[in-house]
Amino acid sequence: MEERVTFALLMGGGGRRFGGKKQFAPFKGEPLYFHSLKAAIRWGKCASFLLVVPPEDKGRVKEETSSIPVPLAILDGGPVRAESAWRAVQEAYREDPDGMVLLHDAARPLEDLSVLDSLLEEARKEGGAVPVLPLEESALLIGEEGEDPIDYLDRGKVRLVQTPQCFRTHLLFEAEREAGQARCRFTDEGSLFLKSQGRLGICEGSPLHRKITRKEDIR
């Protein structure tokens, strides 16, 4: 019997560099977050969907998603991304601690559904998995002040990490709970999971899953 899968779309944030809340920016004729939500629905393996949004936008999101015929829960986002993710993990754990949870940033349009299949397979084996891409340009390590060059990194040993990321719900819940407020020091759930569990699966990501940071990224 396959595990119950929950898809959590993290759509908080004020979009400082974008100049507004990019999760609501028009993208292919709809709000940006719709693109990933509808893609996950098309994938057909999720039992429930969690939308973690700024509290002031819950009414808007509820209205915009009212015609979507799948189970949706709209949660209050936290002041930072890590807290929003923690709230999603708690809800997924409440729904089914023995299931799987996928966490995805709404600012990264979900295009290649084959990545979800690979993630789910790797997460079943390792307890958690993230999609990665090779580094195609040279990378320079600099000092703490952001000025003095220290050394070039061996890009053959470096990977760029994307979302969505997939985990056994109870394992991520325990890792998040043990981390407490220190969870905010981690850049994503994969880094927290690796620190807690000492292991993390990886699969090939997709260059189509580019992160939208500035207005010119939407094209």
Round the Cα radius of gyration to an integer and report it.
17 Å
Mean pLDDT: 92
Q: Would you identify the regions where 5 or more consecutive residues have pLDDT less than 50? A: none
Question: Which class do the helix and strand fractions yield?
Answer: alpha/beta
Reported for the largest beta sheet, the result is:
8 strands, mixed
Portion in helices: 25-40%
Number of strands: 12
Distance between the termini: 41 Å
How would you spell out the order of helices and strands? Answer: EEEHEHEHEHEEEEEHHE
- Tell me what portion of residues adopts beta-strand conformation: 15-25%
In DSSP terms (H or I, runs of 4 or more residues), the helix count works out at 6
> Any idea what the shape is?
globular
Keywords:
6 helices; 219 residues; two-stranded antiparallel ribbon; alpha/beta; 8-stranded mixed sheet
